[in-house]
């Protein structure tokens, strides 16, 4: 590559979405990804309506329809199974942006489809990025360096690009919980997105197809989540069916379990010179509203539009101008609902039937507006 090209650092959802959007617009780019194969720790992913709209903008609507299962309804329940409130997602988003749950590896393959995508990828680890007047000098783990006209850091929560260009980590523990457990399990009869919240834990099950559900479990009120799988049994044994049965099933197959910290990134700037951050590298947020992939793909579309328009010296500032308000809205609504989940159960179960639907509409309402660089 030459110094008139874009280097995308990171081959996850944000990086692959940006690479695809740049190819659509004829902007030369390459993707540097240290892992030879996609990470599977996320297992599956819930795509709310704005994520589905972003995939359509990337030309992937038809491909998405062949993956996973649509999410037509949400149910929020107490630990004993009482329905606190429900949302008709079909009615809220309509059929053009119907939410969907898919396996993460399938989504990555969808974004990475085609010979042009393969040709633009390289198995390399970026060790540092040094800004220059007309771009950046990028150092790799093999000792080599390359000039690039623009660098996009899509390398996740612990971003090397953020650390070497912007300084400091900017990482914090989420308000909701310190860590989470994720898993796939046989479907016990769940037919919609369903979450149960108890005194110290919250657990979510979403059908991925007719046979399996994706599960996500964490603490509430910033509580700790033990790295020993026994935490799941201790926390959820008193919950209503089918939660204890599902937990018992996954504990008999510990290889299906994935434990990870729940970390957020809150920083004051996402751009400096001809370098920007996108996705989790810029604004990782606890998955309360399932906005990680959605915001990352929106970032990619906006950034690609701006890069295709030229004047790369001002792209960073314009990118932040277009994206900051939307991301800040999601962060604020994430913190608000996380605090609600952490109040004493009797208060939470009393106010959630009223506050829950309001929070859902207040969060997702503005996100129904498509992203744009116009006006």
UniProtKB/TrEMBL annotation:
The keyword Oxidoreductase applies. Residues 5-328 form the FAD-binding domain. Keywords: Monooxygenase, Oxidoreductase. It comes from the Bacteria. GO terms for molecular function: FAD binding; monooxygenase activity. Coiled coil: none annotated. InterPro entries: FAD-bd, FAD-dep_Monooxygenase_BioMet, FAD/NAD-bd_sf. SUPFAM superfamilies: FAD/NAD(P)-binding domain (SSF51905). This is FAD-binding monooxygenase. It comes from Couchioplanes caeruleus subsp. caeruleus. The lineage of its organism: Bacteria, Bacillati, Actinomycetota, Actinomycetes, Micromonosporales.
